[in-house]
């Protein structure tokens, strides 16, 4: 496993691929043990989408190629440190004729930072229907990129969001970095795709989709209350993350992420998301609850 001298800051996509290229230690008790590195982050904490995607990769390594992930439920337990390696232990809970179940625990310093359980299935025929993709939205080529909003700001977080992330993200209604981005509604839509071409490995694209799904989903909570990522005193942290894969799509093609928040209470906000391919196929559904603590004034 290699690390670029600057922690991947000049090659965000290469840094993502390095993080997802887990090392099999060869050790195994009752579980499979793998290790991985982290991407550089301006505040030194592991990005939640990274450890989610790595946990999925670890589980995938224990399965035959014909078993494809269809659902995942993960809980964020502690913040991770980007300077330290992450150990992943995979419990092969069940292997049936059609379905397999795996539990992955991610550890640093012997303490779990994430616990995830995922289910995998052999491809099968069955009923088929889906929600419709929203119509009449601007296309990604007609929307500004993050660096258009943040590129001129001399701050490490702004510079990372503008130039250091492996995905190009474009908000349909404008971002909520420093301003409320329009009406106080509990919904938004975001186009995203990887900043370069990824290898032709379907499991890699599924793992990268988990990664990207963690970027913006809680913004539907912020938008409803007129909050921004720059609101002084705002504290936001993901608590859990669930995802269901419906149909395959490449993450280096444009995908539309439609998000809404049905509820916020008790210092927590719930957000739901649907990810569509550009031709209208419903690729995945997402649910995440986060801690959202806003200043009183």
Structural description of this entry:
This protein has 297 residues and is an alpha+beta fold. It folds into two domains: 1-122, Hotdog Thioesterase (Thiol Ester Dehydrase, Chain A, Roll); 143-297, Hotdog Thioesterase (Thiol Ester Dehydrase, Chain A, Roll). The protein is built from six helices and twelve strands. The protein has a twelve-stranded antiparallel sheet. The radius of gyration is 19 Å and the shape is globular. 38% of the residues are buried. Residues 1-8 have low confidence and may be disordered.
Strand order of the largest sheet: 1-2-4-5-6-3-9-12-11-10-8-7
Question: Unreliable runs, pLDDT <50, ≥5 residues?
Answer: 1-8
Query: From the coordinates shown, what is the CATH architecture of the largest domain?
Result: Roll
| Biggest β-sheet description | 12 strands, antiparallel
Amino- and carboxy-terminal Cα gap = 47 Å
Query: How much helical structure, as a percent, in the residues?
Result: 10-25%
> How many separate domains make up the residues?
2
The chain-level structural class is alpha+beta
And the CATH topology of the largest domain?
Thiol Ester Dehydrase, Chain A
Q: Find the CATH superfamily of the largest domain.
A: Hotdog Thioesterase
Total strands: 12
Order of helical and strand elements:
HEEHEEEEHHEEHHEEEE
CATH class placement of the largest domain? Alpha Beta
Overall, the morphology is: globular
What is the alpha-carbon Rg in Å?
19 Å
Mean pLDDT: 92
């Amino acid at each position: 496993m290699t690390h670029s001298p600057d922690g991947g800051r000049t090659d965000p996509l290469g840094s993502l691929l390095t993080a997802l290229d887990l090392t099999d230690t060869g050790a195994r008790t009752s579980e499979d043990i793998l290790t991985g590195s982290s991407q550089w982050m301006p505040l030194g904490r592991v990005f939640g989408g990274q450890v989610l995607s790595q946990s999925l990769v670890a589980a995938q390594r224990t399965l035959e190629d014909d078993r494809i992930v269809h659902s995942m439920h993960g809980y964020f337990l502690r913040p991770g440190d980007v300077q330290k390696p992450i150990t992943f232990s995979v419990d092969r809970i069940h292997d049936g004729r059609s379905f397999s179940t795996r539990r992955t625990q991610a550890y640093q310093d012997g303490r779990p930072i994430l616990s995830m359980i995922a289910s995998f299935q052999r491809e099968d025929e069955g009923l088929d229907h889906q929600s419709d993709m929203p119509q009449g939205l601007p296309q990604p080529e007609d929307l500004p990129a993050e660096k258009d909003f943040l590129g001129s700001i001399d701050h490490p977080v702004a510079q990372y969001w503008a130039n250091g992330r492996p995905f190009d993200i474009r908000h349909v209604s404008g971002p909520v970095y420093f301003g409320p981005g329009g009406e106080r509604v509990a919904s938004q839509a975001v186009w995203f795709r990887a900043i370069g071409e990824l290898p032709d490995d379907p499991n890699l694209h599924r793992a990268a989709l988990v990664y990207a799904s963690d970027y913006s989903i809680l913004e539907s909570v912020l938008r409803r209350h007129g909050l921004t990522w720059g609101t002084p005193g705002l504290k936001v942290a993901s608590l859990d993350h669930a995802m269901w894969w419906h149909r395959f799509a490449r993450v280096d093609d444009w995908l539309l992420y439609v998000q809404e928040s049905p509820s916020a209470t008790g210092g927590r906000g719930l957000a739901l998301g649907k990810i569509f391919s550009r031709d209208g196929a419903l690729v995945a559904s997402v649910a995440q609850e986060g801690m959202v603590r806003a200043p009183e004034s």
